[in-house]
User: Which sequence fits this backbone?
């Protein structure tokens, strides 16, 4: 009935940016909503575990997946011009960086600070991606999701999505209830550059264009981040922790620690600095290591197993907790043999046996 491309018992190495070499019972590529509904109905009828994946840029598979991996390739971009804004409707299988380039070339400005962020549009909403002063929530107008219960598509406005730092309602409460189908993005025609510290060094003269920002961000990210085509990684493995002001003040008194006051009175601390000052510079578990240019990133140097990557992450977590009394929160999702694994089951101060 539907033209669906699928494979059985194949490696998922090319479907996750960590490039862990595991397998899935079945891998299915879908290009339209009807095909997605059809596959989800089969999974529901026969109680088959399933996982919807974009570029696999924010997951760590811990075991061979004993279900169906549905690879989202639902694409399309619709643009409506208003007197003061551009309204974009973007389907979730589009790549984020491709959207940034596409809009910039059309003279639709506002996404340039997020150049070269990996992943698809769906994960942009789920993770509330961000870089250099811009987060997805800043440009989000709405998110269209499809319910797993009745396949109905619901439009959620920005305020209903509960966006926070690298988080949303789709990463938590709605994770097993719906799938992101498309997002609405609203960009003002009155463009103003978002200035960040590294950008100030390039502002000669004071005026800077969106294209220049795009090029500068791309250059910085290319220089400082591992090449996904050569080194397996999922970007920042841990979030920069956000802690209470009283706790932060104690740390600031003891250490010359980078910190960033938040609008809600909390303090964001540099997670990379915490890791660097735990004497973990040269630690390596098998082929799993800390990326030296950016300590929040864990890398698969060649043939790291998921257990090696997880063990390295657990060691980092315990050291930071013991020294600074800060719980580093993983940014990645952990996928077991049939479902997502809770972070709380994997990270603890005690040297527990790895659970997956």
Assistant:
């Amino acid at each position: 009935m539907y033209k669906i491309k699928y494979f059985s018992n194949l490696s998922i190495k090319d479907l996750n940016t960590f490039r862990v070499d595991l397998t899935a019972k079945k891998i299915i590529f879908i290009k339209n909503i009807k095909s997605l509904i059809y596959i989800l109905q089969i999974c529901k009828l026969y109680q088959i575990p399933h996982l919807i994946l974009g570029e696999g840029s924010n997951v760590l598979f811990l075991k061979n997946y004993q279900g169906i991996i549905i690879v989202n390739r639902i694409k399309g971009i619709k643009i409506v011009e208003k007197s003061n804004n551009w309204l974009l409707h973007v389907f979730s299988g589009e790549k984020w960086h491709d959207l940034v380039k596409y809009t910039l070339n059309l003279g639709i400005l506002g996404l340039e600070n997020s150049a070269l962020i990996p992943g698809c549009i769906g994960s942009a909403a789920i993770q509330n991606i961000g870089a250099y002063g811009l987060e997805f929530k800043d440009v989000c107008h709405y998110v269209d999701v499809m319910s797993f219960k009745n396949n109905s598509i619901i439009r959620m406005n920005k305020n209903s999505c509960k966006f926070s730092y690298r988080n949303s309602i789709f990463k938590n409460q709605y994770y097993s209830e719906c799938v992101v189908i498309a997002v609405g993005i609203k960009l003002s025609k009155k463009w103003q550059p978002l200035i960040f510290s590294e950008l100030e060094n390039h502002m000669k003269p004071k005026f800077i264009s969106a294209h220049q920002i795009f090029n500068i961000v791309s250059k910085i990210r290319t220089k400082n981040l591992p090449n996904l085509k050569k080194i397996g990684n999922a970007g920042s493995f841990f979030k920069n922790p956000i802690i209470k002001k009283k706790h932060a003040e104690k740390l600031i008194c003891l250490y010359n620690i980078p910190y960033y006051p938040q609008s809600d009175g909390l303090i964001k601390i540099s997670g990379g600095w915490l890791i660097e000052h735990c004497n973990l510079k040269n630690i390596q578990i098998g082929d799993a290591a800390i990326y030296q240019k950016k300590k929040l990133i864990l890398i698969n140097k060649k043939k790291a197993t998921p257990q090696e990557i997880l063990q390295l992450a657990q060691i980092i977590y315990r050291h930071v907790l013991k020294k600074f009394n800060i719980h580093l929160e993983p940014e990645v999702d952990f996928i077991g043999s049939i479902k997502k694994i809770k972070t709380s089951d994997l990270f603890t101060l005690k040297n527990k046996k790895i659970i997956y």
